[in-house]
Amino acid sequence: MNSRKILNKTRLRRKNRSRAKIYGTVEKPRLSVFRSNRYTYVQLIDDKIGKTLVSASTQELMINNKQQTTKKDLAGKLGELIAKKAIEKGIRKAVFNRGNYKYHGRIKAVAEGARKGGLQL
Fold this sequence. Notes:
Structural class: alpha+beta
Helix content: 40-55%
Oligomer: single chain
């Protein structure tokens, strides 16, 4: 088996393992993170009705901020932005869903930024 297939199997197993334990509700939605090569996307999802309550991405931050920053710094600001939007909607707590990503780098920065912004994970 080639290395790409092994890596994909490992990622799928990690995703299923983390997702099996996480469920979002209206009071405590799931904070889902998606990381592409260029941007980072975050959503607060209510799994009961399958609806996104709040969303944000680093694209929003890059439009307002023209200066050069690292992806990790932008991810931290993204966490603070999603926390601000969530608090405006009346959401104070969330369940963190890292997906198939390891908890480091941009994923960790989003979580820490959300905590810094006032969201309880």
